[in-house]
Design brief:
Two copies of one chain form a homodimer. Chain A has about 375 residues and is of the alpha/beta class. The first copy, chain A, folds into three domains: about 15-180, Rossmann fold; about 185-295, 6-phosphogluconate dehydrogenase C-terminal fold; about 300-370, ACT domain (Alpha-Beta Plaits). Chain A has helices at about 25-35, 45-55, 65-70, 80-95, 105-115, 160-175, 185-215, 225-230, 240-245, 250-270, 275-295, 315-325, 350-365, and strands at about 15-20, 40, 60, 75, 100, 130, 150-155, 180, 300-310, 330-335, 345-350, 370. Chain A has a five-stranded parallel β-sheet with strand order 3-2-1-4-5, with helices on both faces. Chain A has a four-stranded antiparallel β-sheet with strand order 10-11-9-12, with helices on one face. A three-stranded mixed β-sheet of chain A has the order 6-7-8, covered by helices on one side. The longest helix of chain A is centred in the middle third of the chain and has 32 residues, at about 185-215. At the A-B interface, helix 7, helix 8, helix 9, helix 10 and helix 11 of A face helix 7, helix 8, helix 9, helix 10 and helix 11 of B.
Chain lengths: ~375, ~375
Amino acid sequence: MTSIPAAEAGPPIQRVAIVGTGLIGTSIALAARRAGARVVGWDADRGVADRSAATGALEARASLEDAVRDADLVVVCTPIPDIAEAVVGSLRAAPAALVTDAGSIKAHIVEEVASGAEPADLGRYIPGHPLGGSERSGPEHAAASVVDDIVWVLAPIEASEPAAAERVARWIERLGARPVVLTPERHDRLVAYVSHLPQVASTSLMALAATEEAGEPDLLLLAAGGFRDLTRLAASNPRLWSEILLANRDQIVEAIDAFAERLGTLREQIAEGDADGVERTFSAAKAARLRLAAKPTVRAGVAVLQVGIADEPGALARITATLGAGEVNIEDLQIVHSPEGGRGTVHLTVAASAAEAAVEVLRTAGHDAIRLA
Amino acid sequence: MTSIPAAEAGPPIQRVAIVGTGLIGTSIALAARRAGARVVGWDADRGVADRSAATGALEARASLEDAVRDADLVVVCTPIPDIAEAVVGSLRAAPAALVTDAGSIKAHIVEEVASGAEPADLGRYIPGHPLGGSERSGPEHAAASVVDDIVWVLAPIEASEPAAAERVARWIERLGARPVVLTPERHDRLVAYVSHLPQVASTSLMALAATEEAGEPDLLLLAAGGFRDLTRLAASNPRLWSEILLANRDQIVEAIDAFAERLGTLREQIAEGDADGVERTFSAAKAARLRLAAKPTVRAGVAVLQVGIADEPGALARITATLGAGEVNIEDLQIVHSPEGGRGTVHLTVAASAAEAAVEVLRTAGHDAIRLA
């Protein structure tokens, strides 16, 4: 994984066209406007385009061709099944524009584009995947902050012109995100393990518990924080995930098989009463999880603080108020649970640049705060 | 699952002995003192007993026999492998005392106790499992609040005297927790699905990712909130979990097999490109997860509020300060993530009795708050 060098790569991108103006498309539009670009957009659903325009993110156009005609860069943010067609159409309608997309899988889309586009146009196609989003959907819930500090993968194909990829990478940086370059295949393999497999595991666990609950109506009475953590993803959008998993099926099937093998190994250790083996497996996983907790690199430039918290009304308020008064934005907050519930520690994610000040201000206010990572 | 009727069942418990004075033992001692009991304790590690005594939770005794001699109730809170011996020793040394324990599995312990104790003593043994804890350990991190509002399973055996079980249940209520009665076997089956299986899945997923990372050093750069949710449990104590899983091996092996079967079904749907099948599986799991989110019954008497949150410094502080000023204690707080990160909504858990006031005070202060459950 390499960052693109900071060398200049052609003129900066001034005119942006968004194709597909839902939450992510409108959020990118808002971030692009914030960075000084002129933004237009089109959506197959005219109502969605109008709602996007109403946020002030972009001017709505009546057709894809109208939207992309004058663009320096087209960003395709449609649902996965529609991406390739929109990319091909954009390459054709805007012969000078660079084209990227926001699909959360890459190899399958790249194949579709390669078989539909003129080979001479492919140099201008730089596949992408901004790893941001929101639990909401629709343009009215968009915000420029959705792309702040996120990892934004660029997955150039062989035909992609390096200078084109550099221009897009520079533009992503101006939007406030972090461009990271991977091949489409490598991207798909990595997200299979860290995004798609967790989703499959969460959904399978919840589906199993729901079936068991039919025979044991009080099953979920005993479901503490751990079960809730593991099944939170199971509330995700079924249609979206069906599209993602099928589009990345080879990689996800391989990841599921590898996971099933791990589960099988641990199952045998348990069935055989191999206490040392189980403990070794758990120790290795624990060490890896602590390394992960100490390395919150999913978004560059953040730090994690650990703060003790008293069990009384207002305890959390004192912590957050202290940071608010110090103009520190809390990126994420987590009350840390043991496997069986309970509390007493809060993990706060803040911008790395604010971490030292945050610890200082918390300690001055009498809180037990340390920087974990 | 039935609650024990409120009928009086013998004199209230005044003298409590804690055997094993770590975090859970000392927390139970503190809650018992708060409820007016006289508490003594013993730990195989004299230093642990002294540290527990230093918190003011109990008076340390020099031996198990000394500790339990005058008790109305003995609560055994040792590690799982030591529970049966401590229960048998307590039944023998305190011929008038009731004896319970805090082991997170039951059937295996019950078998060991039944084979070691005098049959005539078994009527006084009421196996238990308080579903509380903390991510910390050791008596200095104990607090009476660890048991506040938790589900506390009582798993009487056939020999247990019903009146004895009722006395213990009344005492648990006085401590501020919620007694729930299950057979040992049913308890173990339910926790296998909602506690042990999630732990096994989390550990297996983290172990797999750690191995993959060795070949793909940047794998975890793409690990967003979902992966972190799924692997949080993997940081749990390896020795403790080796003991739990081996002690409940039949149930956990069955649960792993059922989970593997679910995974396998979803794998086939993906491999075959069965989009409708995948979507149906996801929809069923989503519906179940939303029911779970709407039913936070793991701790009786809590409510979950959904509150919108602006993306700026101090936004969270305004919410928590508003509740703190209204004397509402925040039991849990979660910034809600989409499968790929992002934010904008906070889920707050508060006491059900405070939910209406909390919503009112938040709305009055201009927040967009609704009660989810």
